[in-house]
């Protein structure tokens, strides 16, 4: 039987592992997202004030960090955490893309932002469960 102190230590370790998993997924997502955005913008000669390396970096990193905590919560509640997290990731990417397409902040921004939404979602749904699983071993 675990004492309250042992449970707090396990919980602290779980939070640390979640932060590490989310941060690692976030860093990978930041690098790949910025490369994709640069490629699309270079090929089409686009420049945006609202969509730049800084905004992409913040968004991609924090989406994964928050996603790791959401995945951890789902993992505690269900044996199908990966499936539920995948559904959530894809639905959020679709909703963000619909919003960007219907309410563009700048002309042609959806041509760059929408692929980034899907890229970050796919990286998140692949990397977070992978890193969380690795952290449990």
| Average pLDDT number | 91
Unreliable spans are none
Q: Looking at the structure, what is the overall shape?
A: elongated
Strand content: under 5%
Distance between the termini: 22 Å
Succession of helices and strands? HHHH
Question: Percentage of helical residues?
Answer: over 70%
Describe the biggest sheet? Answer: none
**Which value, in Å, is the CA radius of gyration?**
17 Å
What is the tally of helical segments?
Answer: 4
User: What structural class is derived from the secondary structure elements?
Assistant: mainly alpha
Transmembrane segments: 20-41, 53-74, 81-98, 110-132
Organism: Caldalkalibacillus horti
Keywords: Membrane, Transmembrane, Transmembrane helix
Protein name: Membrane protein
Explain this structure.
The chain has 137 residues and is mainly α. Helices cover 84% and strands 0% of the residues. Helix 1 (4-44) packs antiparallel against helix 2 (53-77), helix 2 (53-77) crosses helix 4 (110-136) and helix 3 (81-102) runs antiparallel to helix 4 (110-136). The model has no long low-confidence stretch (mean pLDDT 91).
Which short descriptors sum up this protein?
137 residues; mainly alpha; elongated; transmembrane helix; membrane; transmembrane; Membrane protein
């Amino acid at each position: 039987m675990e004492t309250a102190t042992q449970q707090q230590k396990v919980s602290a370790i779980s939070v640390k592992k979640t932060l590490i998993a989310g941060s690692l997924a976030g860093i990978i997502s930041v690098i790949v997202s910025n490369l994709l955005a640069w490629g699309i913008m270079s090929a089409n000669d686009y420049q945006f004030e609202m969509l730049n390396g800084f905004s992409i970096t913040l968004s991609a990193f924090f989406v994964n960090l928050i996603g790791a905590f959401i995945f951890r919560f789902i993992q505690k509640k269900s044996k199908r955490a990966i499936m539920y997290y995948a559904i959530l990731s894809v639905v959020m990417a679709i909703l963000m893309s619909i919003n960007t397409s219907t309410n563009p902040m700048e002309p042609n921004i959806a041509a760059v932002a929408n692929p980034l939404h899907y890229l970050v979602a796919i990286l998140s749904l692949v990397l977070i469960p992978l890193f969380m699983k690795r952290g449990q071993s």
